[in-house]
Amino acid sequence: MTCFYLIFILVSALLYQAFASEQVDLTKGFISLPLNRTYYHIQRPYDVPEAQRYSFIDGIHRCWVYSTDKPHTPTSKTKPRTEIAMHGYNYSSGVWQFEGYWYVPQGTSGFCIMQVFGASPPRATTLMLRVYNGSLTYYKGPVLVRDIYDKWFKLNVIHDVDAAKLKVYIDGDLKLEADGHGGTSHAFKCGVYAQDNDSYYMESRWKNIKVLRKCD
Ligand SMILES: *[C@@H]1O[C@H](CO)[C@@H](O)[C@H](O)[C@H]1NC(C)=O
Ligand SMILES: *[C@@H]1O[C@H](CO)[C@@H](O)[C@H](O)[C@H]1NC(C)=O
Ligand SMILES: *[C@@H]1O[C@H](CO)[C@@H](O)[C@H](O)[C@H]1NC(C)=O
Ligand SMILES: *[C@@H]1O[C@H](CO)[C@@H](O)[C@H](O)[C@H]1NC(C)=O
User: Which N-terminal residues, if any, form the signal peptide (predicted)?
Assistant: First the structure.
């Protein structure tokens, strides 16, 4: 009797585990593409050396910027940024996915941490995930996650270009379904890009970044 009961518990646990891991494996059916500095570059204030705004130590990318910094090119009119731009993987069709773990330290606010670049003008972006006052938001709202400071979160963004649909998952939970905004070329970017009400210091950290494409 006891033995039967133990086997029952064991089988239930295994089934639960299989179900739970299936739930969070958002990358199933996707190919993870090679990602090294051949495929991305660091956009940073044009007048400072990269090492003063970006580091990559023990697998953690750290991007920071100050509200008083210059834009990323002398001719740009945009706010300051330090972003990892996946410009080796510009895409215009198919289903693409960005996966990564992110961390935002306390005391920073008013910036974008991840974007899907490219949209029909006058828009420049199809998706922005921003930090305002301790929350992660889709553009200025709605709020997707509260109380984010000093913690790691898993992010998956799936962009179905042909259907013009995006899905945003935090720690495996679907938090947002959004429409595409047109455009002929897209790329994933992550880091810090100042927005309205930006704090003097802005920082985000990233690890295990993957760019994936759905198998045909
Ligand atoms: C980046 O990855 C590609 C594909 O795996 C490889 O061919 C290339 O040599 C790598 N470049 C560097 C700088 O490691
Ligand atoms: C990808 O697009 C960006 C932004 O339009 C551009 O700066 C970059 O050169 C493109 N990369 C490639 C490899 O075409
Ligand atoms: C920011 O969040 C804190 C705590 O969540 C709250 O007390 C404060 O009023 C908020 N500030 C603004 C400007 O929303
Ligand atoms: C920025 O600050 C102003 C003034 O405090 C406030 O009215 C506005 O809602 C803030 N914007 C965001 C996106 O938090």
Answer: 1-20
Q: Is residue 18 part of a domain?
A: no
User: What CATH number corresponds to the domain at position 63?
Assistant: 2.60.120.200
* Closest ligand by atom to 125 CA: 2
Q: How far apart are CA 200 and CA 44, in angstroms?
A: 16
Domain-embedded: residue 19: no
Q: Tell me the ligand closest to 147's alpha carbon.
A: 3
Domain-embedded: residue 5:
no
DSSP secondary structure string, 103-151? Answer: E--TT--SEEEEEEE--STT--EEEEEEEETTEEEETT--EEESS-TT-
Does residue 151 belong to any structural domain of this protein? yes
Count of domains observed in the chain: 1
Which pTM value belongs to this model? 0.87
Mutate to test the pocket of ligand 2, among 90, 116, 120, 186 (most ligand atoms within 8 A of CB): 90
Range of the domain at 68: 26-214
Compute, in angstroms, the gap from residue 132 CA to the centroid of ligand 3: 9
